[in-house]
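Thread: "does anyone have the structure for this chain?"

Original post by V.I.:
We have the sequence but no experimental structure in hand. Need at least a predicted one for the grant figures.
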Amino acid sequence: MTPRIVAIGGTVSIGSTTELALRTAMASAATHGAKVQLFDGAYLAALPHYRSTAHAGAEGREMVEAVRAADGVLLAAPGYHGTISGLVKNALDYLEDLSKDTRPYLDGRAVGLIATAYGDQATMSTMQTLRSIVHALRGWPTPMGATIRTYPGLFSPDGECLDDRARMQLDMVGQQVVQGATSLSAMARPAA
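Reply from O.Q.:
Generated one for you, tokens below.
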């Protein structure tokens, strides 16, 4: 079985630290056998506010369908004012479209979490928020959640993580989301 992982996250800034961190975890997940699909900051920025007058119904459908078919999810959010960004929260609101599924929301899916911010306090409060949201959506957060304190030079110009501690965390999140997705999918399969 090839686990299907959906990666969601980023900011309105192309090549943001949040997106680079997410891509590092995605590479780890792919190395551990997963097929990974990305919905980055540019995709999220194009989503109108969920169920607002600007939301015609087709927006976000590709992401929702990808999560519906996924075995696991990687979520990356920047810490804005002590919590996740509105951009990421709005994307997660679109998962309400999964509420009436046989497997609602993130039920039965491993979810790897990444929080980025300039300060340690913001990374921790952002991680707490991500965990609370995933629990509310019935997902299974991985044991490791990457809290990445950002600074200039954390990533090379080509996107390589240059900090050993951050790289280790992101690699572990990618690995654990694949392990969790594989285990949860095996438990959900009917016995032969």
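V.I.: this helps a lot. The first helix runs from residue 17 to 31.
O.Q.: and The two ends are 16 Å apart (CA to CA).
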